[in-house]
Amino acid sequence: MAHGHCARCYLRAYNRRRRATDPAYRARGNAAARAYQRQRPRADVSAATRLYRQRHPDRVRAAWNRWEVLNAEKTRESNRASAERARRKDPEKRNARTRAWFAKNKPYRILKENERRARKLGGGGRVSREEWEAIKDRQQQRCAYCGEQKVLTQDHVVPLSKGGPHVATNIVAACRPCNSRKKDRILV
Q1: What is the maximum alpha-carbon separation in the chain?
Q2: Domain boundaries, the chain
């Protein structure tokens, strides 16, 4: 026993400290590891890797997540390139998936379009799904102008075109006909 540890634990701690502080020691260790990997047949390495990934999926996912965080720009660029390759490979399949997503997520898409429009017009702000649902619940799922229970859209009390912000306090739920009829007027 050395320093309260068994010999193996002491040696591991010593090597860990040495690798962290001595670049030459680390380089020698890395070179030895590369030489060892070159000697092993590729099939053995692949089988061992597969086995490890099967036994420890949580560790593998955590390591991958850490790598993605540390290499965010590289990950983003890789994802963009991959998406571009998929678009080029089968554009019709990609278009069908996009159409299906748009159909499934119409309310979310409309919220995002409103945010984008607000940014373009300089109004800024953001209304989350929860805030939008709270606005509709507060109005009992009825139009703010005609009081009917229809499909509701976001209407800005002070319109974006007149400098109104895209925030929950400036939004009421209105049916599409009432929202279109109001246009960009400010109702008092």
Answers
A1: 86
A2: 7-70, 71-104, 106-182
DSSP letter for 135, please: H
DSSP E strands in 126-186: the ranges are: 152-156, 171-175
* pTM of the model as a whole: 0.50
Q: How many CB atoms lie within 10 A of CB 139?
A: 16
Q: Residue 60: is it exposed, middle or buried by C-beta count within 10 angstroms (0-12/13-18/19+)? A: middle
Residue of 110, 187, 127, 122 lying closest to 161 (CA atoms): 122
d(CA 136, CA 87): 38
The span from the CA of 149 to the CA of 104, in Å, is 22
CB 180 within 8 A of CB 146: no
CB 123 within 8 A of CB 166: yes
Kindly report, residue by residue over 142-172, the tens digit of the pLDDT.
999 999 999 899 999 998 888 888 899 999 9
